[in-house]
Amino acid sequence: MALPLSCFLFFLALQSHTSVAQTHSNITLGSFLKANNDNTSWTSPSGDFAFGFQQIEDKGFLLAVWFDKIPEKTIVWSANQGNLVQRGSIIQLTKDGQFLFNDPNGQEIWSATFVGILSYAAMLDTGNFVLASQDSVNLWETFDNPTDTILPTQTLSLSTQLVARFSETNYSNGRFLFAMQGDGNLVLDTTSFRGEKETYWSTQTVGIGFQVVFNQSGYIFLTARNNTILNYVSNASAPSDSYQLAILEHDGVFRQYIYPKPSGSDASRWPAAWSTISLIPENICLSTPSDSGRGICGLNSYCSLGSDQRPTCQCPPGYTIIDPHDELSGCRQTFISPSCDGPSQDADQFDLREMLNIGWPVNNYIQYFPVTEDWCRGVCLRDCLCTVAVLRDERCFLKRLPLSNGRLDDSVRGKALIKIPKDNSTLPGVKSKNNDDSALIITGAVLLGRSAFLNIVLLLATFLAYFCFRNRRSEVLQPHRVTLGMNLQSFSYKELEQATRGFEEEIGHGAFGTVYKGELPNEKGNFVAVKMLEKFVKEGEKEFETEVLAMGHTNHKNLVQLLGFCNEGQHRLLVYELMSNRSLANFLFGNPWLNWCTRVQIAFGVSRGLCYLHEECSTQIIHCDIKPRNILLDDLFNAKISDFGLAKLLSADQTRTTTGVRGTKGYVAPEWFKNMPITAKVDVYSYGILLLELLFCRKSFEAESNDENMVILAEWAYDCYKDKRLDLLLQNDEAAMHDMKRLERFVMVAIWCIQEDPSLRPPMRKVTQMLEGAVEVPAPPDPSSYISSI
Ligand SMILES: *[C@@H]1O[C@H](CO)[C@@H](O)[C@H](O)[C@H]1NC(C)=O
Ligand SMILES: *[C@@H]1O[C@H](CO)[C@@H](O)[C@H](O)[C@H]1NC(C)=O
Ligand SMILES: *[C@@H]1O[C@H](CO)[C@@H](O)[C@H](O)[C@H]1NC(C)=O
Ligand SMILES: *[C@@H]1O[C@H](CO)[C@@H](O)[C@H](O)[C@H]1NC(C)=O
Ligand SMILES: *[C@@H]1O[C@H](CO)[C@@H](O)[C@H](O)[C@H]1NC(C)=O
Ligand SMILES: *[C@@H]1O[C@H](CO)[C@@H](O)[C@H](O)[C@H]1NC(C)=O
Ligand SMILES: *[C@@H]1O[C@H](CO)[C@@H](O)[C@H](O)[C@H]1NC(C)=O
Ligand SMILES: CC(=O)N[C@H]1CO[C@H](CO)[C@@H](O)[C@@H]1O
C-alpha cells in the first residue's frame, strides 16, 4: 500500500497529533511515529514498556517493543523480521483503520495482517502491543507474533516459534529455533541456511503437548490440552518485583532473565543488569544436533563453555574463522591437506599438535584397538584423509574433514592429535592474519605449483565422496549399518574367534583364504562374514594396513562393505557385511537360472561397482579377479563386488609389469601372459567375459561331453554376433529372446571389453554408459584381430 509521496507529505502536514513520546492508554486512528533522532515511542500506562523506533548503533532503526524504564532499553519484539529501516520511516494507524509501515518514500515495508475493523492500538503493561476493535477485541498482538523473546503471561500455541537473532546486535533471523511444533513436541532446533533442521533438545511430547505458558511467578512450562503440566522448561521462581523475560539467544541457548524493578525492594542495587535464572540446554556444547550437521559452532570449530555458562567458538591450531564478523561461521584450514594421490610422500611434512579434553564425536571413519599412542600417531600421519586422531583408553579414532560438533569440555576424555604442517611459518593464516585475499592467492599458487589437475580432481572427489556419503546417510535408517559402515573397527583375534564360534561355519574359500560366518557380540542378528587371509602372512604389517585403509575408504552400493579387521601377530582377518544370497556362481549355471531382468540388473551393478573402484576412489583399485564367485548377491539380488583391494594396490601411474598372474583361468586378460603393463583394463576384460556368462548363463569355456568339443564362449559369441544368430546361444530364455535389441547391445559391449589389445577396450565408465544406452555402441572388431596382426 504505497501512497504517492506528495500525497503522503500533505497527509502528514494535516496531522494534529504529535509524535513525541507520551504515556498513552489508547492510541487512536491517525497517530504515527517517525524514525528520527527524537525518542519517539508509545509507552504503556505504567511506563514499563514502549513501542516505537530504536536506533541500532548508527546502522538504522528497528521498529520494536522494549523495556523502557531501564537504561538498556532491552528489546523484546521487533517488526520486519529484525531488519533495520532508514531514518524517516513511518509507522501509522491510518484513519481508515490500517496499520502501515512505510519507508521515507512511502513504499510499504511491513504490515500487520488481521481480520476485523481496527479501532485503536495499545501498548499494554504486560509488554503486549495490541491492535483492537471498537469492542476491545484484540485483532492482532505482538504476543501472538513473537520474535525471539517471551514475557510473563505470554503463551506459545501450536505451530509458533521463537527465532534467535543472528548476533547480539543483528536482529535478523539467526540459526536457532525454539518451536512449539504443530505435532505437540517442543523443540530446540538449528536452522542451517540450507534449510535442514536438527533438533538438539526436545520434550518428546508428540501428540500431547499443547502450549507453552510463561506465568507471572516466573515458571515456564508445557501443558496438555487439559492444562496438565507436562514439562517444566524452567521452575526458577522469580521475585515479584523484578522484570522478567525468556529469550532464545543467538548462541542457541534459551535463557530466562530477571532485572530488579527501579521501584522494588532491590532498588538500592539499581541500575542493575539482567541476570540469568535458568537456561536450556545446560551445556549446549555437549548437545549434538546430528552427526552430519554443522553443530553449534559451525564446521571444523570447537565449542567450550565459559564460567558464565556461555559458549565460545574457537578454531583448532591450523584453522581460522571463516567470517570474522560471525563467530558461528565455522573454521577453515589454513594449509593444504596432504595429497591423497599415490604414496603419501607428504607424510613427513606434517606433525600432530596435542590438545586435551577436546573431541569431535561423530567424525570417526576408522578406529583401532588396542594401540599405543605412537602407533596411532603413525597411522594418522600416513593416512592422507586423517585430519585429527583421538586417543582414548588404547583406542585410536581417526577423523576426517569436515569436523562437526567439536567441543572442549572436562567430560571429554582422551587426547586429540591435530594434523598441521611442520613448518607453520608457511601457514597463510599465520603469516598474514588480516589478509584473507593473500591467503587465497597463496593457496591457489601452491595448488598450481603441484599437479593442478590432480589436485582439482582430488578436491572434486573429496566433495563427491562427502556428498554421496551424506545422501546415503539420510536415506538409510539402519543405525548399526550406518555407524559400522563408516566406522571401520579393529577386532582382536579372540573377539573374532568368539564371533565365529571358533571358526565353525565355513561359507566360502577363495584365493586369499577361507570365509566364515560370524555374529558380532554386541548386537544379536548382526551377522558378518569373516575372511581369514592366508597369503598375507609374509607381507609387511604396513602394507596390510594401507590396503585395509584404502578398502575402508570405499563406500558404494555395489561393493561389499568392509566393517573391520584384525591385525594381530600372524593373524590377518577381514570382517565384511554378510551377503545372504552368496555368490553369483551359485545361481548362474545352476537350474533354475536367475531371470533375465535380474541378470541385466547384476550386469549394471557390477559395471558401476568397477567404475567406482577404477575412477572414484582416492587411490585407484584394480580388482584383478573379477568372476562370478567374487560377485555376491544380497536379499534383493543386488550385485556386490567382493575381494577388491586385496590384490596389491596399483596406483594410477604404476604401470609396471608384474610377473605373477593374479586372475582366474578363463577370466584373465591376455596381457598377464605377455610381459605387458597391468592396468585397470584387465578388469574390463574379465568383466566382458562375465557379461557374456550373465547374458547366456553359460560358462566361459565348457568341456562338453569330450574335450574335442570344448567351447570357448567368447569365440562362439563373436561368431553368433557376426551371423546375427544370438538366439542360438540362448537356452530357452523367453524373456531375453524378447529383448533382442538389448541383448545385442550388451553382446557388442562385451566384445569391446574382451579385445586382445587393452587400448581398444573402453574404460569402465564408457562401458556403463554403453550398457545404459547413454552412448552409441559402435560395431566391435574381432577380439583377436590384434593378436593375428602381430
Ligand atoms: C480504549 O478504547 C476503547 C474503545 O474505544 C474503550 O472501550 C476503552 O475504554 C479505552 N481504554 C482506555 C484505557 O482509554
Ligand atoms: C532520548 O532519551 C535519552 C534517555 O531518555 C536522552 O538522554 C536523550 O537526550 C533523548 N534524545 C532526544 C533527542 O530526545
Ligand atoms: C545481519 O545478518 C544478516 C545475515 O548474515 C545480514 O544479511 C545482514 O546484513 C546483517 N545486518 C546487519 C545490520 O549487520
Ligand atoms: C505459576 O506456575 C507455578 C507452577 O505450576 C505455580 O506454582 C504458580 O502458582 C503459578 N503462578 C501463577 C501466578 O499462576
Ligand atoms: C490430561 O492430558 C494428559 C495427556 O493427554 C493425560 O495424560 C492426563 O491424564 C490428562 N489429565 C486429566 C486430568 O484429564
Ligand atoms: C522442576 O521441578 C520439578 C519438581 O520439583 C523437577 O522434577 C524438575 O526437574 C524441575 N525442572 C527444571 C527445569 O528445573
Ligand atoms: C609454530 O611452531 C612453533 C614450534 O613448533 C610453535 O612454538 C609456535 O607456537 C607455532 N606457531 C603457531 C602460530 O602455531
Ligand atoms: C540361496 C538363497 O539363500 N536364496 C535366498 C535368496 O534371497 C531370497 C530373498 O530373501 C530368498 O527367498 C532365497 O531363499
UniProtKB/TrEMBL annotation:
Membrane topology of this protein: Single-pass type I membrane protein
Domain of life per record: Eukaryota
Location relative to the cell: Membrane
Stretch forming the signal peptide: 1-21
Family of this protein: Belongs to the protein kinase superfamily. Ser/Thr protein kinase family.
Residue span, Bulb-type lectin domain: 24-144
Main location: membrane
Matching SUPFAM superfamilies: alpha-D-mannose-specific plant lectins (SSF51110), Protein kinase-like (PK-like) (SSF56112)
InterPro entries in UniProt: Bulb-type_lectin_dom (IPR001480), Bulb-type_lectin_dom_sf (IPR036426), G-type_lectin_kinases/EP1-like (IPR051343), Kinase-like_dom_sf (IPR011009), Prot_kinase_dom (IPR000719), Protein_kinase_ATP_BS (IPR017441), Ser/Thr_kinase_AS (IPR008271), SRK-like_kinase (IPR024171)
EC numbers on record: 2.7.11.1
Nucleotide-binding in keyword set: yes
Pfam families with a match to the protein in the record: B_lectin, Pkinase
Residues involved in ATP binding: 531
Annotated Protein kinase domain residues: 501-775
GO-annotated cellular components: membrane
Naturally occurring in which organism (per UniProt): Dillenia turbinata
Reaction(s) catalysed (UniProt annotation): L-threonyl-[protein] + ATP = O-phospho-L-threonyl-[protein] + ADP + H(+); L-seryl-[protein] + ATP = O-phospho-L-seryl-[protein] + ADP + H(+)
Keywords: ATP-binding, Disulfide bond, EGF-like domain, Glycoprotein, Kinase, Lectin, Membrane, Nucleotide-binding, Receptor, Serine/threonine-protein kinase, Signal, Transferase, Transmembrane, Transmembrane helix
GO molecular function term, any single one: carbohydrate binding
Name of this chain's protein: Receptor-like serine/threonine-protein kinase
PROSITE patterns noted in UniProt: BULB_LECTIN, PROTEIN_KINASE_ATP, PROTEIN_KINASE_DOM, PROTEIN_KINASE_ST
